[in-house]
């Protein structure tokens, strides 16, 4: 039978991992110990002994354990715990609440987190917090550990989970989405722009606003020198000022912007607005986007706008295989490989330049001199993008971030000679989110995600690090072509590991993504143990009307991931498995995972009871033949 001491040890270890200074059964805080001196769960007026007690920040933590998961909690209804003596004695959550209420009623401490815990292995352990005050209690969602209840994190958890206050990041994201929603509607109603034209128009206007010689006051609906022409000229002059080279690149971008001067309705006076639509858009972007937060966040604002504009039209670029990468993933890429200021970063499918922006910010944060910053922007960031509209957005993004646009190219990466790229540029880092699901037919097999990966690896310098985010089906490699690509990769390059991500990472897209990390031009050793991590629980959750948001757990979850990735921190197999690999394997945590927990007697008894119940039901319903019962025997039942 399971023993409660096993639960105590598990909980103790988790408290220590969260740096929570705790006491067992009694508290070093005198008033709390006095409150517990008459708090026996049996109602005898004698001393009560919760498993653990701690003070974290301004909050008290009290924990009660049970070995059996069936003793986790007893409820009167969904949010109300039954608090009679037998429930308090026999159930973890009920007992924890009992102790919390005694502390609140008899001390000055009025904010307590009571935890009911049950289970004897890391796989079966259940932890549910209950927030308790003099006015009542709130049953909260179960948690996996106590990281959000350390002194440095507990207030954030209280504000966001208990009070449901919004974090700064949530508010900022909501602001971006609200502005995108309003702008999307206005661009359609007043500008009659298509969904593909909207982010390009936004890019052009943002560039025009950088030109100090340009003012929205100059946009007066002149019928000859139209407002659209003035905006286009301002863009043209600003691109000359920042020296976008070569001339062909500047022409490619300007060609994408040219429609803003050729659409009469953008420059004509609109009675409802009291100005031309393009002046309205320029004023809106200046006051609500540019000055509000564009320079103060690593968020890829133009990329976010692009995604939002596409989603309103019933798609997000998926018809083109376009799935834009969230900010927390672009930053994670840089942290996984310890990106340094001397690295030369290459993104061959750069989209709106989200990875390049993250890489640039990471490298700039590590240097002080202006000369080093100029060098990073000028020499260390390279990108290729096939889609002309996306290329224009990426170029705009990099210009607005302070140059870094010189090494962007509008081209087809797969048509570039990888050997030539390797010898010419010596890229030390490759970052990529390739187009998805383009290899649906035999004729398009060369457009598979694995083909993009092998082509990128071949393009990098010897020993370069490569990080990609792709659908998990890529790592399965079901087709013959995919198997050949996997064999090709292992014969020439090293697979360091694969991280299975939160299925909601690309919220609304329906893609289950993974991150794969490689080392270029080092054949994969047969005895190398690659890492396979289950990071589905990354601390990000879907919020209504917003999408994926950062929760208080996210930083601690990322810290655990990075420690396991870089330092081989000991963890259970359900989080990380290390294994040798072959091309025939599915390069996923789920493929290599094995359950290291030993079944208990209770598990056996439950399984036998389920089986006997099933067998009895089948026999009584005339299906005894499933268990070698003949019809004569069935008739006697």
How far the N terminus sits from the C terminus, by CA atoms, comes to 35 Å
Task: Determine the mean pLDDT.
Answer: 86
CATH homolog superfamily of the largest domain: Vaccinia Virus protein VP39
Number of helices: 25
Whole-angstrom Rg:
30 Å
Query: If you consult CATH, what is the topology of the largest domain?
Result: Rossmann fold
| Total separate domains | 4
Q: Structural class of the secondary elements?
A: alpha/beta
- Report the biggest beta sheet as strand number plus sense, adding barrel if it closes: 9 strands, mixed
Poorly predicted segments: 292-296, 312-321, 631-637
Give the helix proportion (percent range).
Answer: 40-55%
CATH class of the largest domain: Alpha Beta
For the record, the CATH architecture of the largest domain stands as: 3-Layer(aba) Sandwich
Shape: globular
Count of β-strands: 19
Descriptive report:
The structure is a single chain. By secondary structure, the protein is of the alpha/beta class. It folds into 4 domains: 4-162, 3-Layer(aba) Sandwich (Trna Endonuclease, Chain: A, domain 1); 168-310; 316-592, Vaccinia Virus protein VP39 (Rossmann fold, 3-Layer(aba) Sandwich), CATH 3.40.50.150; 601-635. Helices cover 43% and strands 15% of the residues. It has a 9-stranded mixed β-sheet, sandwiched between helices. The protein has a 6-stranded mixed β-sheet with strand order 1-2-3-6-7-8, with helices on both faces. Helix 6 (168-189) runs antiparallel to helix 12 (277-290) and helix 9 (247-257) crosses helix 17 (388-400). The longest helix is centred in the N-terminal third of the chain and has 22 residues, at 168-189. It is globular, with a radius of gyration of 30 Å. Residues 292-296, 312-321 and 631-637 have low confidence and may be disordered.
